[in-house]
Recover the amino acids of this structure.
């Protein structure tokens, strides 16, 4: 399973061409793509019209959508965040950390920018 990050999906929805969007579009019939509820939220919150929201929802229906908001994932993400901070690495956002931790737990690949 490959979890597609919100930044990649935003580029796909905006019809931007880059290495990740081209790869994803080429592999869409070969790979099992998924998103999490957190990624769904990030995508939908950035849209300004109901028309855009409806189009995005329709597109995202092709993906499996997993709930990454479990207590176990939250605690594991907090441990990962603290561990990385001790190593001098700052995670950009809590959602990024939760999504990455979900992927680690499920043995999934993550396509992000």
């Amino acid at each position: 399973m490959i979890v597609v990050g919100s930044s990649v999906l935003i580029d796909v929805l905006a019809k931007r061409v880059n290495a990740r969007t081209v790869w994803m579009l080429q592999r869409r019939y070969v790979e099992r793509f998924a998103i999490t509820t957190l990624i769904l939220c990030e995508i939908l919150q950035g849209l300004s019209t109901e028309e855009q929201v409806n189009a995005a929802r329709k597109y995202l229906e092709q993906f499996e959508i997993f709930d990454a908001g479990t207590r176990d994932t939250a605690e594991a993400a907090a441990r990962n965040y603290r561990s990385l901070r001790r190593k001098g690495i700052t995670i950009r956002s809590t959602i990024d950390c939760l999504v990455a931790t979900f992927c680690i737990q499920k043995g999934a690949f993550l396509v992000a920018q």
Summary: The chain has a mean pLDDT of 94. The two ends are 18 Å apart (CA to CA).
